[in-house]
Amino acid sequence: MDLKELGWDEDWDASFASLRTPAVVPARVVNEEKHYFTVVAADGPFLAQISGRLLHRRNCLAELPKVGDWVVCTPPTDSKAGAICSVLPRRTQLSRKVTGRESTGQVLAANIDLSFLVQALDETLSLRRLERFLVMAHEGGSRPVVVLNKADLCPEIDARLAEVAAAVGETPVIAVSARTGRALPRLRELILPGATVVFLGTSGVGKSSLINRLYGERIQPTIPVRATDSKGRHATTARELILLPGGGLVIDTPGVREFHLWVADGGLDEAFPDIFGLSSGCRFRDCAHRTETGCAVQAAVVAGTLAPDRHRSFLKLQAELTEVNAGRKRHEYLQNRRRTRTGTKAYLRRPEDPED
Ligand SMILES: Nc1nc2c(ncn2[C@@H]2O[C@H](COP(=O)(O)OP(=O)(O)OP(=O)(O)O)[C@@H](O)[C@H]2O)c(=O)[nH]1
Ligand SMILES: [Mg+2]
Ligand SMILES: [Zn+2]
């Protein structure tokens, strides 16, 4: 297998150089089970476990290998299982806040070039949810594309497209149908050889159906949505990196129902370019666009040039991020204190991976 097909390039080579020994190989994580990872190296796939050293050395859960990571491995032998010794620094990643836990981030996938934000063109379509996914994609460094699936179910595609386009600014929006094949060649063209594309969206929007169509075979299971509310039933249960015939890599993910954002620095501005653009007219540089005087964003809402919903949505996400950032600082402070007291022991637990 040519590693280039999996996305390997000169920069990865440079990042691997200092870790290179005759005993190790670079490989990409394609699948994650409870205690095993499937990785693919030049000689093919094998199962690997996290080495004890890596488990000890890491500072937080986010540093453990995830689907899409490039890792340094010792391949399995007759007497020993394969082991992941290190994770090469990620170029991009998708993270969310772990549900039910105070302030830890969970990396969903690593080294993503494009994020397909998939929604269905039915009553489940939600601009608010789309905005949230947009912030997440931008924040992690991947380029988003909005994919509106099930176009065959929608009698007024152009109107819905216009609504969505207005909410996502420059982000490309494509209406497709996994059922009829509409616009699938356009979708396929976006997935360049060696590039990694993640499919994100709630359960039932048709992520796996689209991947099956792109692959040309039914490789991922799909389940019909509930007739009453068009909601899915979690057909996909694990994230998985898939090499498409003809090149390009896609990651299928289980539907996320609700998620909280995790540490966005620039993601919010990029997901709301209209508000970002307006903010240069605010009187205060650090204007929060809430109650400040001389706020150009509030003025635009009053003048009717910015939708009140969009403003509200921005404020909500901004508040969430402020809280996440504060929580994260608190958490890091406490962790550092605890680590100096108890060594690494408390951190050896494996993360459970709640999928909602
Ligand atoms: N009408 C119509 N139905 C579709 C289309 N794409 C997918 N479906 C149906 O929607 C249902 C859910 O599709 P899946 O591909 O399982 O959805 P998913 O996003 O992978 O869902 P999870 O794996 O649960 O996150 C299946 O019954 C599909 O046949 C489409 O373009 N049009
Ligand atoms: Mg699926
Ligand atoms: Zn303002």
Care to describe what's here?
It is a single chain. The protein has 3 domains: 3-87, Beta Barrel (OB fold (Dihydrolipoamide Acetyltransferase, E2P)); 93-252, P-loop containing nucleotide triphosphate hydrolases (Rossmann fold, 3-Layer(aba) Sandwich); 272-341, Orthogonal Bundle (Ribonucleotide Reductase Protein R1, domain 1). Helices cover 31% and strands 20% of the residues. It contains 10 helices and 13 strands. It has helices spanning 10-17, 52-57, 127-140, 157-168, 184-190, 207-215, 267-271, 273-279, 296-303, 308-342, and strands at residues 25-32, 37-41, 44-50, 70-74, 82-87, 93-97, 105-110, 114-120, 143-149, 173-175, 196-200, 240-243, 249-252. It binds guanosine-5'-triphosphate (GTP), magnesium ion and zinc ion. Guanosine-5'-triphosphate is lined by residues 149-150, 152-153, 177-179, 201, 203-209, 222-225, 232, 234-236, 254-255. Zinc ion is lined by residues 279, 282, 287, 289, 292, 295-297.
